[in-house]
Amino acid sequence: MKISHDQLAAFVMIADAGSFRQAAARLNVKPSTLSHTMRALESKLGVMLLSRTTRNLALTAAGQQLYARLAPAFADVRHALEDINDFRDHPSGTVRLSVPHAVAERFILPRLHLLATRYPDVVLEICADNSFVDIVKSGLDAGIRLGMRIERDMVAVRISPDLRDAVIASPEYLARHGIPKTPQELTAHRCIGVREISGNTLYRWEFAKDGEVLNVALESALIVNDADLVIAAAQRGLGLGFSIDAYCTEYLENGALQRVLADWCPPYPGFFLYYPDRRASAALHAVINVLRWPAGQQN
Asked: Which residues does residue 205 pair with via DSSP β-bridges, in sequence order?
């Protein structure tokens, strides 16, 4: 019975990803090819490793036992190769990064010319997703989120300055409905709500001033789940929006939007790149060196 390394690696990747489609994307092969590989492996072993339905994929008891033995071994091989990579003059490899859409556009893309110039052999794969992704379970190398939302057991590296929230509206909207002076006055306005993907609840607008902290739940005339949609809706006069100041800079400067309640929006730590442990690959360190704030600092 001859079982290839590629067959075992494909099995581990499928188990990690939880689906043929995601595993195939990571391996850059067709799902049908991966399915054929697994059938051949199961045939050679004489046992079913995966329980498949039209919607779900799960490991059988035999699959769980095999995965428990193989996963650490493949991780050791990967780490060994990454350690060798540390001796290279030029880091190489692929880094898969989970990033919210708005952050990718405003904080990541503007710096990538430096990555291409300094580290031409590093490939960055941006997985744009507004939900809080489990980067370990999803097979990602790192993620980017607000510092206050990152688990304590993660290594975190700042990639942005401090930020402030911003209540925004079009000049036309404010001319028609007036300018709120306190958070309590927001109840008299049309507000654009944001649905939190992780908890499926409406985000409560947060304010603080002179030691007073408010979390305001507002009835929303429009509900979205994307930061850029909030800004677009506010520009069209559909109501007051709650955003991050760095997202709105261009529109505040050109007059498409105006800011209100600025004195109720104090600064807080911005965005951080995070990863599970300090055993990061040379390629990930290269990405960190490019994205780290302030610019120019090295690991």
From this structure: 216
Give CA separation, 168 vs 9, 38, 255, in Å: 50, 53, 11
- Write the pLDDT tens digit of every residue in 129-139: 888 888 888 88
Contacts of 287 (CB under 8 A, 6+ apart): 95, 97, 115, 119, 122, 124, 142, 273
Query: Would you mind telling me the total number of residues written for the chain in this entry?
Result: 299
Q: How far apart are the first and last CA of the chain?
A: 47
Q: What is the DSSP string of 125-179?
A: EEEE-SS---TTTTT-SEEEEEGGGS-TTSEEEE-S--EEEEEEE-HHHHHHH--
CB atoms within 10 A of CB 214: 14
Strands 163-169 and 241-244: antiparallel
CA distances from 97 to 108, 131, 145 (A): 10, 13, 11
DSSP string over 103-130: HIIIIIGGGHHHHHHH-TTEEEEEEE-S
Give the helix/strand (H/E) hosting 7.
helix 5-17
Tens-digit pLDDT profile for residues 222-241? 999 999 999 999 999 999 99
Q: H/E element holding 212? A: strand 212-216
